[in-house]
Amino acid sequence: MTIQSSPSNRPNAFRENPRSFRKDLRLFLFAVAWGVEFTSAICQPRITIRQGLSISLGSLYEGITAHRDLTLMNTGTDTLGVSSITTSCGCTTTKLRRTAIPPADSTIVAVSFTNNDLSGPVKRHVYIESNDSIAGKLDVIFSGQVVTILQAEPRYVSFGNLRLHDRQQRTVHIRNTTDKTIHLLSWSSPEKRITIAGEQMRIAPH
Question: How are beta strands 150-153 and 100-101 bridged, if at all?
Fold first, then answer.
């Protein structure tokens, strides 16, 4: 038995009307591409900071570490991934609870500020990077006023070059910047060769 194949009797769309075929093909490819782009646009993570991008810390006391929490929310329709959190200086540190945030969910970034040897207005930045292509790299600005409770004048003391067994003396004035009397419990120095003597242990408001 011999089996032979024969050409199909159905018309070939390309042979019948090549221009129409190419036009239909272009429309089909455009529709597919638009559908992929439209789907991608819908399924996007959206990062939102509940506290906003500019946060006031109020009054901060010198030498005391202040803590604040940032709430990162995903208001989009795809999982939000936090890839990096950096700060503008070493005196500001952060701790992120989790890096992947599902849609309609949130997480916390704990931010700590150390205010040693500072006084007056301060500004710190926390930079957050994620897979939200629209938001890009967020810059959260923290501002506050560092309050020095006790002010020393001069703030730094130098004894210069000393000969062996020489003794020198320097005077430092302490000022109370608050509206209440401060009682000093003790004076001390990490340097054993330095001794401190104070005239009074109570400092009235200036």
Answer: unpaired
Cβ atoms 125, 94 nearer than 8 A: no
Host H or E run for residue 198: none
- Helix and strand numbers (H, E) in the chain are 2, 13
3-class SS of residue 197: coil
d(CA 151, CA 164) in angstroms, rounded, equals 32
Strands (E), the chain: 47-49, 54-61, 66-74, 80-87, 92-96, 100-101, 106-113, 120-130, 138-147, 150-153, 173-176, 182-183, 202-203
pTM (predicted TM-score): 0.65
Region 161-185: what's the mean pLDDT?
85
pLDDT at 113 > cutoff 70: yes
